[in-house]
Structures are given as structure tokens and as C-alpha cells.
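I would like you to help me understand the sequence and C-alpha cells below and explain how sequence relates to structure.
___
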Amino acid sequence: MKTRCPYKLFKQARTLADQGKDIVLEGAQDLQEKVSSDLMPSVEHAMDSMRGQFHEVKKYSEESLKEAAKQVKKQSTEKFGNPTPKRGRKSLLFLVLAAAAACAGYLLYRRSQPVDDPWAEEYWEDVEVSELDPEKVAEKAQDKAEEVAHNAAQKADEAVDTVKEKLD
């Protein structure tokens, strides 16, 4: 057995594939020409005849349905008489519409009411806010501390004096 080079085999497969492609393309073109020349006119003719038959059947069915509806209406009026209008449905419809109008009116009334009391006192405008000065606060605290210390010293002196008087 002869062994061939893979490159040669690849080249040979490529030429065979190109030849096969050409044959398939020619066959496809022949088939396309045959379909377009032979089958398309017969398909178009069949479509036209089907369309005509459909319009005839549609026309006949519409006429027969209208005639059947007339017959049913005639027989039902002979057997049951003319229908009388229902008064209950009209009154129910009126009540439903009146309730819907009342609800809409109530909602509009509630929306038109003010959210805040217009005559209420405007408390936020009366408040005066002063800025806090840390130096003044420190001075006041120091003065108060000195005053408390002075008072405590006086009380302590008085307590010492009373104890000395009692010991003597």
C-alpha cells in the first residue's frame, strides 16, 4: 500500500469538493428554473381559483346567516312576544350613578378643606432665639461659682464660731 502525504490528500479533497460544489450549484439552478417556469404558474392559478371560491362561500354564508337571524327573531316574537323593558335595571343604574356622583362630590369637598387651621396661633413666629456667647456664659458661671464659694466660706466661719462659743 502506498502512503500519500496528508497535504496531497487535502489538495485532492479540495478539488473534489470544488467539483461537487459546481455540480450542486448547476443542479440547483436547473431546479430553480424548472420550479419558476412550471410550478409557479400552476400555484398562482390554484391560488386565484381558491380566492374566488372563498369569496363565493363567504357571500353565501353571510346571506344565509342574515336570513337565519331574521327567522329566529320572527319565531321568538311569535312565541314569547315583544320583550318589555326592565324597570329594576334602570333604577339600579340610577342609584349606582347617584352614589358615584355623591362619592366624587364628597372627595372634592374633603380636598378643598384646609389642612392647617387658618385661625390658629402661629407659634413659630413668636419665638426669639438668641445666640449663645461662650465667653458670657463662662463669666456668669465664674461669678456664680465665686458667689457660692463666698457663701460657703461665710457659713463655714459661722459654724466654726458657733462651735467655739459652745466649747467656751
User: Anything to note?
Assistant: The chain is about 85% helix and 0% strand. Residues 87 and 93 are 10 Å apart (CA to CA). The first helix runs from residue 6 to 80.
